[in-house]
Amino acid sequence: MHNFDFVKPSSIAEAVKALSTEGAQALSGGQTLTPTLKQRLAAPTVLVSLTGIAEMQGVCLGSDGLSIGAATTHATVAKEAAAHYPALAALAGGIGDPAVRNRGTIGGSIANNDPAACYPAGVLGSGATVVTNRRKIAADDYFQGMFTTALEEGEIVTGVTFPVPQKAAYVKFNQPASRFALTAVFVAKFADGVRVAVTGASNNGVFRWSAAETALSGNFSAAAVEGLTVSSDGLIGDLHGTPAYRANLIKVLTKRAVAAAH
Amino acid sequence: MPKDHGIGASSKRREDVRFLSGRGVYTDDMALHGQTYAVFVRSNVAHGRIKSINTANAAKMPGVLAIFTGEDFKDVGGNPAGWLINSRDGTPMREPKRPVLAHGKVRHVGDAYAAVIAETYNEAKDAAQQLADDSDIEELPAIVDMKKAVADASNRVHDEIPDNLCFDWGWIEDNRAAVDAAFKSAPHITTLELVNNRLVPNAMEPRSSIGEYFPGTGDYKLTTTSQNPHLTRLLVAAFVLGIPENKLTVVAPDVGGGFGSKIYHYGEEALVLAASRKLGRPVRWTAERTESFLTDAHGRDHVTKIEMASTKDGEILAIRTETLANVGAYLSNFSTATPTFLHGTLMAGPYKVPHVYVNVKTVFTNTAPVDAYRGAGRPEATFSIERIVDKMCRELNLDPFEVRRKNLIQPDQFPYTTPVGLVYDTGNYQATLDKLIELADVAGFDKRAAASKAKGKLRGMGLSTWIEACGIAPSNLVGVLGSRVGLYDAATVRVNATGNISVMTGAHSHGQGHETVFAQVVAEKLGIPESSIEIVHGDTSKIPFGMGSYGSRSLAVCGSAMSKAVDKIIAKGKKIAAHMLEASENDIVFADGKFSVAGTDKAKSFGEIAFSAYVPHNYPLETLEPGLEETAFYDPANFTYPAGAYLCEVEVDPETGKVDIASFTCADDFGHVMNPMIVEGQVHGGVGQGIGQALLENTSYDENGQLLTASYMDYAMPRADDVPFYTVDHSCITPCTHNPLGVKGCGEAGAIGSPPAVVNAVIDALHRGGHSHVKHIDMPVSPARVWSAING
Ligand SMILES: Cc1cc2nc3c(=O)[nH]c(=O)nc-3n(C[C@H](O)[C@H](O)[C@H](O)COP(=O)(O)OP(=O)(O)OC[C@H]3O[C@@H](n4cnc5c(N)ncnc54)[C@H](O)[C@@H]3O)c2cc1C
Is A212 exposed, middle or buried (0-12, 13-18, 19+ CB in 10 A)? Predict the structure, then answer.
């Protein structure tokens, strides 16, 4: 690890100011960034911790849905969202291991936008709104490919607001080593239609499976998906599975998510 | 009532108190005055010619104390191979020099070609990065695939070895014609090509070494993560650096697992010693996890074609194998023994097979060295045999239980001479098979399969009846087979004046529980409490010259030495008692911790004898020496032959290909059991590793020799929820006939017997589920591979 300075501001404004220093980088739970630093793959001069900012913490049900502060840990979401949005709570409770869940945060996860991460599926599958220090970004506009988001220089995620569906489920098939998603599917049924988001499978990161959304909006049952085929074009092929295998998983897991949705 | 003390008791592991409370002291825990840090500069290409290394910039960086390159070690010795193997044509194996630091060429990703010593770790890291930037290494085409390595003579790992072959070994060459003839006339031949996947050992504690040089005396000390400190001392002192053995102490303190990877001497150990000599300060190094992945000796990595000749009703007539075994870029210390004498000699399994021929070609590649890893050679043999027996049963539509039973060596046939050079001293393979069938409730399988089906899962069961040769020892035998070292072991029993005991053992415990079990054996024999016995190991300045722990040998070999030393203590105690009790030595009997005169009530306690030995006020010194301390060396007459039967049940999800282990049952014969709890733990750990190999662990190099699985993000280790609650039994006992404790060893069994049981179960599940076109799936049997096999 290279040397760096460390600051822990207590407001969003202070954090944004600290981040304007040359070579500064945001640090949330550190579950992605710390290993990167240890391997000397990044050398920020200042780390700006986002975990001391009260307005970026907590889970709160309001009129526009369930709002979660960006620095809220996975463990907190697993516990506090359970009554309001069980599928999302279950997603958070299935990330990594207890140590990761006690430190890792929703903001860090979606800022990083790992193609195999869980939250991007939950956020896109719910049609959530990503709130930053500058604006509100619809999930459909926020995720822009592997490790790429709509965030601009100096912009940080401060929270995410989720509309709560009638029914939803997240079904994750673990990559055997990392236990990130080899492929995972988030299905959410709203009054006006169904959203299906797939993570772990595509070279372009999280995406919506629109054919399944159409089929399920007409008939919310596993059978509705049965007749669909998934193309393996653009899907990830690696040690843990070929594109064809991932295409198969997308369909199998979607059916299972529909069956499990509650 | 089970015993609560001594042999056969499940005494709690006394070492766990410090391990589980964070009070173990490992190499990296030791802080030394004036210590400095070594960081190695490692190749990031698999194969390259070192054109220049410019040290000037790095040398000027803050805190840098010294820089070493291969040039500094070109005149010292190489790290040698411990076994000389001859090819079929009688020529000796090719043995390229394995230098402390690569010189001229780098031969695998991670091959260290320079080292920086600095005041702090970060300064050493910074300078190592600079040195890497200032090194000019011309990348050469990498040799990764063994078949290509042998076929393409133009591309060489070692310039002087034209076909990348270390040796081409036939076992037993003289039997080859008879084996071929048996195949010619065989009613049925089963053929299987398989891969025994390369594994990264992944000990929890990474390798770590501290070198110290004491200018006042000229002594050296190496504190290191070793399974066998005396062997390391011999190698680094006599072969590599030329330090007199008596000027070097090697200490292996608490060591957090080895599984074979810490048997061997590695260049980092020589480097920290040489650097401490140059600087007059302690020099330390601890591997980062990535370094461990890249440079710890890996395990397995065989590509095998096995053929089995049989009658139509499943009687095995002959076995023939052709194997390519990867040794990686350099010969690690046991690398030539593992694919030969720990593999070929086991190729008859527990069966009465009259004809066996094994051919092994070992191949150099631009990958990390490969050597013994828990089981070492025997898992490879067992996997090949048990997979092909299963395939033969399927081809001939025979019951796998019955076919095994028919072919197993019968209890009255021991000692049994195999066609591959071993004599199994004792065993009862039918007994363990019967036990297994009962414990695993084979009769209830159909009901369980129906329940699985109701959940959409395919259930299958896989059997493995296995044997191994362990207690790796007899010097006579291993000498004939090519070993350059003897493989006895030694123990010293020192009775202190106050009656408590220190036992110094050549065996090293790095998780096995010797401190508990060895004390149980001594306590039993002397009739004193376990708590008054201390086991001392891991320090060459304290212990007798022993060969350390691997090959399930510690109790069978070192424990036997200790048992002999205790017998000598008792004999000496009788002399002392005879003197104290004014009786004839022949009339003294020792029982229940007391020396007494037979037929009288005259007696002295063990404590009184001990005290007298050190306060010998009126000893007849011409006939009775003071003191009560004895050493014994033990070199057994044969290997030991643990054997058993394993049954695995799996559930396969046909839609995703995921395999879950539903149950795993083991019926083992380990001979006498000293501590049942520890034996069970060893079997759990071994089977866990076997399940890891079968389902999860995949060491993958790409065609450029880059290790794709160099971290836990891609290398899958078994976790608690990957393994079931095991059923383990060791009540079938045929005691070893040639060691004093009648023990056989249990450390590797689980890892040897389990992988074929898992794979057989998966194939069985697929067949029962209607996917009978699937004949074999290579390990690891990952979800993606199972799914492809089903849909292929
Ligand atoms: C062993 C292990 C297992 C894991 N398993 C899973 C899993 O199964 N599923 C899964 O989804 N994830 C998994 N993760 C990743 C985990 O969820 C991380 O917590 C998450 O990806 C990053 O969140 P963080 O809070 O730790 O972010 P950090 O590591 O602190 O930051 C990550 C990146 O985001 C930036 N950043 C952080 N917060 C913000 C913000 N508010 N605005 C803008 N930029 C920001 C940082 O500058 C950095 O570049 C695992 C991680 C580990 C170590």
Answer: buried
Task: Give the helix ranges, DSSP H, for B397-428.
Answer: 400-407
Could you give the CA distance from residue A142 to residue A206 in angstroms, rounded to a whole number?
11
Give the model confidence (pLDDT) of B620-673 as tens digits: 999 999 999 999 999 999 999 999 999 999 999 999 999 999 999 999 999 999
Chain A within 8 Å of B311 (Cβ-Cβ)? no
Which CATH architecture best describes the domain A59-162? 2-Layer Sandwich (3.30)
Cα separations (Å) of B582 from B451, B575, B587, B710? 76, 10, 10, 70
On whether any CB of chain A is under 8 Å from the CB of B696, the answer is yes
Considering only CB atoms, which chain B residues are within 8 Å of A183?
Answer: none
Q: Tell me the CA–centroid distance for residue A30 and ligand 1, in Å.
A: 6
Q: Which atom of ligand 1 is nearest to the CA of A27?
A: 30
**Three-class DSSP category at B429:** helix
Contact assessment for residue A245 and residue A200, using Cβ atoms and an 8 Å cutoff: no
Which residues are B668's β-sheet partners? B644
pLDDT reported for residue A196: 98
Residues of B in contact with A43 (CB under 8 A): none
Chain B residues inside the 8 Å CB shell of A178: 712-714
How many Cβ contacts (< 8 angstroms) between chains A and B?
50
| B700 in reach of chain A (CB within 8 A) | yes
* Ligand 1 atom 53, closest CA: A31
Nearest to B699 by CA among B139, B296, B266, B163: B296
DSSP string, B464-485: EEEE--BS---HHHHHHHTBSS
Calculate how far, in angstroms, residue B760's C-alpha sits from the geometric centre of ligand 1.
40
Give the start-to-end residue ranges of the domains of chain A: 5-49, 59-162, 167-261
Classified as helix, coil or strand, B124 is helix
Please give the distance, rounded to the nearest whole angstrom, from the Cα atom of residue A151 to the centre of ligand 1: 15
Apex CA A117: angle with CA A113 and CA A120, to 5°? 60
Return the closest-CA partner of residue B249 out of B545, B23, B535: B545
Residue A3 Cα, gap to closest chain B Cα (Å)? 9
Range B436-444 average pLDDT: 98
Q: Residues of chain A whose pLDDT is less than 50?
A: none
pLDDT digits (tens, 9 = 90+) for B473-521: 788 888 888 898 888 999 999 999 999 999 999 999 999 999 999 999 9
The single-letter code of the amino acid at A190 is F
Which residues does A73 contact at the CB level (< 8 Å), separation at least 6?
A: A29, A101, A102, A103, A104, A105
Residue B482 and residue B84 in contact, taking contact as beta carbons nearer than 8 Å: yes
Residues B668-699: tens digit of each pLDDT: 999 999 999 999 999 999 999 999 999 999 99
Considering only CA atoms, which residue is closest to atom 6 of ligand 1? A96
The closest-lying atom of ligand 1 relative to the alpha carbon of residue A31 is 26
- What homologous superfamily is domain A167-261 in, according to CATH? CO dehydrogenase flavoprotein, C-terminal domain (3.30.390.50)
- Alpha carbon distance B589, B158 (integer Å): 65
DSSP readout, B646-689?
A: EEEEEEE-TTT--EEEEEEEEEEE-BS-S-HHHHHHHHHHHHHH
Amino acid making up residue B787: W
Count the neighbouring beta carbons within 10 Å of the beta carbon of residue B150: 17
Interchain contact B714–A (C-beta under 8 A): yes
Q: Which domains does chain B have, with CATH numbers?
A: 18-140+204-257+262-295 (3.90.1170.50), 393-469+640-791 (3.30.365.10), 488-634 (3.30.365.10)
Among the listed residues B784, B761, B257, the one whose alpha carbon sits nearest the alpha carbon of residue B508: B257
Residue type, B264: Y
Domain spanning A5-49: CATH 2.30.130.10: no
Residue type, B479: G
Task: Judge whether residue B412 has pLDDT over 80.
Answer: yes
